[in-house]
Amino acid sequence: MKPTSIDLRERIVAAYDADEGTRQRIADRFKVSLGLVKKLLAQRKELGTIEPQYQNVGRNPAFDGENLKKLDKFLQKHTDATLMEIQEHFSGCVSCSIQAIANTLKRLGWRYKKKRYEQVNKTEKM
């Protein structure tokens, strides 16, 4: 979701400072929620700014720093390793899912392509 523009934030706070009505009336006037008006006023009081505050969310990458270098070296030696083989090889130092490994390979610039015989074997088992 896009943050509210700085211009609108400034107008909301200016209207409140000029005592142009209650918080609810200011919210209705600018067609925003009462919660946004309260949040802006509280943010200005706590942080001294009404600019959008960006949160860095999500889990840290499973492979970083030294483990990322080890993974790259492992892949240079074992270019045909499957995701499961990579997971088993690094199980002692990294605990992550197959998808996390696939994302890391993409981040490193490695292309992952299953071997043809693995695809055939999987379809025969089903």
Radius of gyration, rounded?
Answer: 26 Å
Q: Please provide the count of β strands.
A: 0
* Cα-to-Cα separation, first versus last residue: 42 Å
**Structural class based on helices, strands and sheet pairing:** mainly alpha
Explained architecture:
This protein is mainly α. It has helices spanning 6-17, 23-30, 34-47, 66-77, 83-89, 98-108, 116-125. α1 packs antiparallel against α2 and α2 packs across α3. The model is unreliable at 116-123 (pLDDT under 50).
Q: What order do the helices and strands come in, and which of them pair?
A:
Layout (H helix, E strand, L loop, with lengths): L5 H12 L5 H8 L3 H14 L18 H12 L5 H7 L8 H11 L7 H10 L1
Helix pairs in contact: 1-2, 2-3
Short key terms for the protein model shown above:
single chain, 126 residues, mainly alpha, 2 domains, rod-shaped
Question: What can be said about this structure in brief?
Answer:
With 126 residues, this protein is mainly alpha-helical. Helices cover 59% and strands 0% of the residues.
